[in-house]
């Protein structure tokens, strides 16, 4: 089997089994259902006060992607910390397979759960708040959604590899959750922020993904934003893969992997 | 050629204390460890908690970089050729951790088979063989969270053997397992040895090392203090005898721990250790050949309530205790 075929197989098997791990816990399942809906409801209740149906559509789409950001930012680094606690992290590191190929399926499985959160939030907005998101370009919308999710998975991958080196690296994910809601323009237009904040926002794939999703829904051209989102996602994946090897070397030097 | 060769391995850890004013302290966990393991050998690494056993193993399995020294596995350097070394070794540690609890035993093995590059066409047969070897056939579809500690440990061994490694590291595999489970585990390890598998085993249990190991190295405060066959290590103390004195300590002057120095200084005494029991303690005195120290020992314990006094032949455990306490 060629190197590429083996890598694809490792990723695919890892993704299926990690998804299985996430799926078997009823408690986790309920949390995954309730958590994004809770925050989406809060946001939509606030925006409803405006009385403008277009604003509510803007917020409805933003709230849907907001749940995926939360699922990735906090869960990805937490997932690696979970591996550390259950003693599997050192087995992933001592396996002959590159650690990136072991970690990426974990964040990909989380992105799959995030896809559910996105769809559920859109349905929730429609049923409870009567938000009808008219999608003018369904193909562009679907592609933008998938690219946004994949880029979120690679961004989560970058966050999670820091946990290999730093025992409390998981806190980074928690730190980014709420600022990310603002920085990625999920609920508030980026034009309202100072220029330096917009530069940070432009470095985050979901910012472009969110613009692409809104553009596709409104019938504007989503492809440039989608392409930038994909490019940033690939960039974060490459950076994560590069850093994962360097951080493991550093962890071996500084003894930050489990020693018991 | 030896399967494993370690030369003067050293590892220093830096620890810090304090919050605002950080004080750094260097701790030498392993201080110049050298040994070799031959093909087909079951090599035991023994030592008390904190002696450096696990740190030594973590350097050999590429989880830690040595501060100095070198080690090779099948001629591959554990620092320079880490990825190649990982293909050649299996690593199994004791305790509950190291498995995906929510997955079945079969899924755990499937996942690690992928990570250890077991060819897809061979996986089913290999996993079946290993489940048979560790006695888990018929339980493979159950989730690991329902497994007993002994079953988990056997699954760990199956995981460690998936890619048929040239060298298997077993780090205290029997820790916390009940006697029946531990016996089954020893049978599994003995079976691997009989198949010609090369194994490095660390354990606290002397009878386990005596029963399983071809050769043993004893490590104390980061240094190897003895190497040899179990018979050779026993021979270090079999020329003498062991006196065991049951005591019931009080406090202060009547605490037997305060007399260890006095007893140890008696002529004919090699070493002294106090084992705490449920009610009292046992003073274990290693005695040189021909010496009769019973009366002198009892004299040194004057004022402390004494129970049974026994003189017996030394065991491997006595050899170990003498090595790690001298």
List descriptors.
heterodimer, A: 260 residues, mainly alpha, globular, B: 326 residues, alpha/beta, Rossmann fold, Alpha-Beta Plaits, 6-stranded mixed beta sheet
Strand order of the largest sheet of chain B: 6-7-8-3-9-10
Question: How much is the average pLDDT of chain B?
Answer: 88
- Largest chain-chain contact? A-B, 30 and 36 residues
Query: Which architecture of the largest domain in chain B would the CATH scheme give at its second level?
Result: 3-Layer(aba) Sandwich
CATH T-level topology of the largest domain in chain B: Rossmann fold
| Alpha-carbon distance between the two ends of chain A | 36 Å
Radius of gyration of chain B: 23 Å
* Largest sheet report of chain A: none
Which homologous superfamily in CATH is the superfamily of the largest domain in chain B? P-loop containing nucleotide triphosphate hydrolases
Query: How would you spell out the order of helices and strands of chain A?
Result: HHHHHHHHHH
Explain the overall architecture.
- The complex is a heterodimer of chains A (260) and B (326).
- Chain A has 260 residues and is mainly α.
- Chain A has one domain (3-254).
- Chain A is 80% helix and 0% strand.
- Chain A contains ten helices and no strands.
- The mean pLDDT of chain A is 85.
- Chain B has 326 residues and is of the alpha/beta class.
- Chain B folds into two domains: 4-228, P-loop containing nucleotide triphosphate hydrolases (Rossmann fold, 3-Layer(aba) Sandwich); 235-325, MTH889-like domain (Alpha-Beta Plaits, 2-Layer Sandwich), CATH 3.30.70.
- Helix content of chain B is 33%, strand content 31%.
- Chain B has helices spanning 53-60, 82-88, 105-115, 120-133, 149-161, 179-194, 206-212, 230-238, 260-264, 294-300, 316-325, and strands at residues 4-17, 23-37, 42-46, 68-73, 76-77, 89-93, 167-171, 198-203, 215-220, 223-228, 241-248, 269-276, 281-287, 305-312.
- In chain B, the strands form three sheets. Chain B has a six-stranded mixed β-sheet with strand order 6-7-8-3-9-10, with helices on both faces. In chain B, strands 2-1-4-5 form a four-stranded antiparallel β-sheet. Chain B has a four-stranded antiparallel β-sheet with strand order 12-13-11-14.
- In chain B, strand 12 (269-276) and strand 13 form a beta hairpin.
- In chain B, helix 3 (105-115) packs across helix 4 (120-133), helix 4 (120-133) packs antiparallel against helix 5 and helix 8 crosses helix 11.
- The longest helix of chain B is centred in the middle third of the chain and has 16 residues, at 179-194.
- Chain B is globular and about 75 Å long.
């Amino acid at each position: 089997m060629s190197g590429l075929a083996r890598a694809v197989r490792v990723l695919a098997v890892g993704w299926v089994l990690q998804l299985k791990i996430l799926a078997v816990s009823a408690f986790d399942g309920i949390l995954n259902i309730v958590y994004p809906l809770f925050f989406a409801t809060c946001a939509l209740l606030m925006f409803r006060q405006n009385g403008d149906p277009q604003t509510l559509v803007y917020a409805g789409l933003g709230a849907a992607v907001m749940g995926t950001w939360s699922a990735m930012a906090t869960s990805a680094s937490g997932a690696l910390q979970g591996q550390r606690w259950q003693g599997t992290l050192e087995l992933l590191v001592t396996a002959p397979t590159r650690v990136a190929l072991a970690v990426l399926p974990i964040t990909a499985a989380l992105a799959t759960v995030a896809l559910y959160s996105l769809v559920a939030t859109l349905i929730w907005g429609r049923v409870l708040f009567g938000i009808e998101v008219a999608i003018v370009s369904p193909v562009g919308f679907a592609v933008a959604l998938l690219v946004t999710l994949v880029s979120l998975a690679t961004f989560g991958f970058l966050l999670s590899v820091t946990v290999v080196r730093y025992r409390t690296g998981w806190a980074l994910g928690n730190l980014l959750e709420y600022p990310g809601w603002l920085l990625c323009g999920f609920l508030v237009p980026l034009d309202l922020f100072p220029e330096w904040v917009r530069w940070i926002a432009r470095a985050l794939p979901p910012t472009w993904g969110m613009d692409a999703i809104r553009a596709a829904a409104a019938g504007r051209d989503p492809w440039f934003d989608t392409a930038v989102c994909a490019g940033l996602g690939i960039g974060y994946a490459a950076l994560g893969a590069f850093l994962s090897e360097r951080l493991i070397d550093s962890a071996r030097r500084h003894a930050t992997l489990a020693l018991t | 050629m030896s399967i494993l060769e370690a030369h003067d391995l050293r590892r220093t850890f830096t620890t810090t204390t304090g919050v605002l004013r950080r004080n750094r302290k260097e701790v030498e966990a392993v201080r110049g460890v050298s040994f070799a393991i031959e093909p087909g050998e079951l090599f035991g690494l023994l030592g008390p908690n904190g002696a450096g056993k696990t740190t030594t193993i973590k350097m050999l399995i590429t989880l830690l970089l040595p501060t100095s020294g070198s080690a090779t596995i099948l001629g591959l350097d554990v620092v320079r050729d880490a990825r190649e070394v990982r293909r050649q070794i299996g690593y199994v540690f004791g305790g509950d951790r190291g498995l995906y609890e929510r997955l079945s035993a079969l899924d755990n093995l499937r996942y690690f088979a992928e990570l250890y590059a077991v060819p897809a066409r061979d996986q089913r047969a290999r996993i079946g063989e290993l489940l048979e070897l560790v006695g888990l056939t018929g339980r493979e579809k159950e989730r690991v969270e329902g497994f007993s500690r002994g079953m988990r440990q056997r699954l760990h061994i199956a995981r460690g053997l998936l890619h048929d490694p040239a060298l298997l590291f077993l780090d205290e595999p029997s820790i916390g397992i009940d006697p029946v489970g531990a016996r089954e585990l020893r049978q599994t390890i003995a079976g691997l040895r009989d198949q010609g598998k090369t194994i490095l085993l660390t354990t606290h249990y002397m009878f386990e090392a005596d029963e399983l190991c071809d050769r043993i190295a004893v490590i104390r405060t980061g240094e190897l203090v003895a190497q040899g066959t179990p018979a050779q290590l026993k021979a270090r103390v079999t020329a003498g005898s062991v006196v065991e004195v049951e005591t019931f300590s009080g406090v202060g002057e009547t605490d037997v721990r305060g007399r260890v120095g006095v007893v140890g200084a008696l002529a004919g005494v090699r070493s002294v250790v106090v084992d705490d029991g449920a009610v009292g303690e046992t003073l274990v005195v290693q005695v040189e050949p021909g010496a009769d120290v019973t009366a002198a020992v009892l004299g040194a314990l004057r004022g402390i309530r004494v129970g049974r006094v026994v003189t017996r032949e030394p065991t491997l455990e006595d050899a170990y205790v003498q090595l790690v306490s001298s």
